[in-house]
Each structure stands twice: as C-alpha cells, then as structure tokens.
Write a structure and sequence with these properties.
The complex is a heterodimer of chains A (262) and B (170). Chain A has 262 residues and is an alpha+beta fold. Chain A has a single domain, classed as Uridine Diphospho-n-acetylenolpyruvylglucosamine Reductase, domain 3 (2-Layer Sandwich). In chain A, 29% of the residues lie in helices and 22% in strands. In chain B, helix 2 crosses helix 5. Chain B has two domains: 73 residues, Ubiquitin-like (UB roll); 81 residues, [2Fe-2S]-binding domain (DNA polymerase, domain 1, Orthogonal Bundle). The relative contact order of chain B is 0.15. The chains are: A alpha+beta (262), B alpha+beta (170). The interface between A and B is medium-sized, with 27 and 27 residues.
Chain lengths: 262, 170
Amino acid sequence: MSAAPEVLLPSSADEAVSLFGDGADVTVVGGGTIVVPELTYGRLKPSKALLLHQAGLAGVSISGSTVTVGATTSVSDLCGQPAPLGPCAENVADVEIRAQATVGGNLCAGEGPDAPRGDLQGPLLALAATARSAGEGGITSEPLEEFLPKRRGRLLLDVSFEAPEAGGFSALGRPHTHDYTALAVSAVRAADGTIRLAATGVGWWGTRLPSAEAAAGDPEAAGKAALADVTFHDDALASAWYRERTLPVLVRRALAQLQESA
Amino acid sequence: MKLTVNGIEREVESAPLTPLLFVLRDELEVESPKAGCQQGGCGACTVLVEGEPRRSCLTPVVAVDGARITTVEGLGSPENLAPLQQAFTHHYAAQCGFCTAGMIMAAQAYLDNWGTEDREMIQTSLAGHVCRCTGYVKIVDAIAAVARGDSFDMTVTAESHDTTNVGGAQ
C-alpha cells in the first residue's frame, strides 16, 4: 500500500454522518469484501477511509408492515427474509462472504471489472425500497431507484420497504468458483396487488422491468416484454446472447412463484 | 492494536487497513493462512475470528482489533494432530496442500456449528473454498469422518499409502 489513508472509526451513526461530511475523498468500508482487494491491488488509493463496523448501523427492524435494514447489516442476516430478499441473499457468494459483506456495500459498491455486482439491488428495487442517506445537503430519503445513480457520493444509512404480499426470486445457477450471479430476476406483489419486477446482471446496476410489469398477468408475454426494458452486455460471467435468451425464462419463473403463493 | 492469535496475545504495528492475512504472515509470522487470490475468491486464507470463518485477505486488521484469531497452528501440533488434521492425512485430503489450511479452518467452524456428516451441508460450508487439484471428494470424506466421530490409526494410514494413492508417482 502507498501513503496510508487516514482511518476514520465512528462509534455511532451520528459520528459516521459527521465524519463522512460531504463525502469528498472519503472511501466507505462496510464489510471490506469489495474495498479491501481494491486497496491490496492498488486500484483504490483513498485519502480517507471511513470504517463502519462500530457505527451501530446494523440490524433489521420491523414496525407495522415496514421493514428497515441498516446499512451494515450483513448479507447473512437477510437470509431468513421472505422472497425475493431472503433467497437473493442466500444466493450471494458463500457463507463466509455473506457473513462479512454488508447490505450497504452490496448496494453501493457497484460494478466490478469483470462482473455486475449488487445482487441485492434487484429484490430491493422490486420491493420499491426507500434509501436513507447522508452527504451534501444532509440526510435525505428517496426511492432506491433514484439513489443508485448517485450512490458513490452518499453514505447509505438504511433501506426500508413495505413487506410484500408475495415474492419470487429466480437466478441463473453458478459454479462454486463464481461469487456473482450472471442474471437474476426479483418479483413482488405488493399489498395493493401491484406487481413489480427487477433484474440484476443486465446493465451495470439493477433495473426495474416496466414492460414486463405491464404484462405480468401473462408470464410468457411478460418474459418477452422484459427484453425491451434492458440492454444486454458481455462480461466474464456470461455473454449478451446468453442473457437475452435466459431473461424471459427467469421472468416467467419469478412470476410463477408469485402465482403459486396466490 | 492487539490480536490474540492461537491463545497468545500479540501487539500489532501494521497500518490499520492492512489485511489480517498480511499481519498474520508478514508481521506475526503465522504462515498457515495462504495468500492465494488475495481478493476473497479462493478461501486459502480463511482463519477463525472469534470462532467464525473469515477471509483474512478481506479483513482490515483494525476491524478485528482485540479479537481472538485461530489458525491451523492453533488446532494441533505435529506430535498431536487435531482430529481434522488426522482425518485429512488419513483420507489423503491434501494434494498440493495450498488450499488445505483454509479448508480445515472452514471445516472446523462447520463442525463447531453443525457437526453433521451431511455431505451437502459440508459442501455448503466449503462453498468459498477452491481446490485446484480438484480433490473435493476426499476433503468432504475427511470432514464427514470427523463429524461421525471416526478415530484414525495413523500407523495404518502410513502403511496403506501404496494402495490408496492410486496413480501416485511413487
């Protein structure tokens, strides 16, 4: 490692927000599973590193029908949640990584050099989650969809969502040597009957599938309609060709899970 | 910073963001955790932090300041091997050996937490560990044997070398 960065170790959420400030030159370290190799290989040379492990931002709380997940909650702590969040969390990497990786890191670190990251973006987009974050302009809450494009400049505090009436999650299988899933689809039927769909592995972060949502009554048609909502790409995990052929299948399967729980 | 490594309290002087792996290997000279991919993909560096398996290459040392760390050196000694070490030897679960220390620590945590010989559960607990010799069957055999409570006669293990090392060079 070159010149050692200044290490910031907040012991409360307020202190974390204050040390983050406007976020300039601050690299946030959640569990470290993504950031630490970047440091080891010299791809990241932060002047300040904000470590959140003692900041009290971990935990899942439920108030009425609202579920709130703190930014440093580990991915393993989501494994028991109903679909799509729980099954998606269980599909992340392996048992050791899940115990160390945090929700905030998974949502915010974003794309890697060879593969899409941010598995949890899919289920949380389908859940229409709200992201609460700090940074320039103070603490704000906004839909996760609007938060994701500007996530690098913000300190995520928590995400919250209404518990769904039903959920589904369908992903391409992966060999145990791969940490990331090439393609996954999350489906949610909200309490008012609205159906929402989102995919990860198409484009560099998670995306809603509005055309597929509009056709959700017919899973076969919804699968085909999803193709209009995304741009496919090649990476180390899968080709655009393969993703284009499998997305309709995953949409169909995720919707079938919703129907099964009708 | 301080770490209790295999029961011995050690002062740490490395920079706070240094991965635990390099603190163990380079500063404290505990060399069983291997620096394989150094990006969390291979599992060769796994150690126990407060009893839980963790990739030491992904863990800034400051995040585990004060913690109890266990490596293979803390399980047994050459004269008095721990059950998993005996099982890996008896079942020829190590080939080149590079992944073995990480495999054994993950397996130790699995046995401490669950302890059954269910092969699927053993595989799940090893999902983050790569053996490029592809010797997975014998590794799972060895862990299942400990879970069952098998005992290992290491004299017999040595004598059976010629018949069990099928295709071996000697």
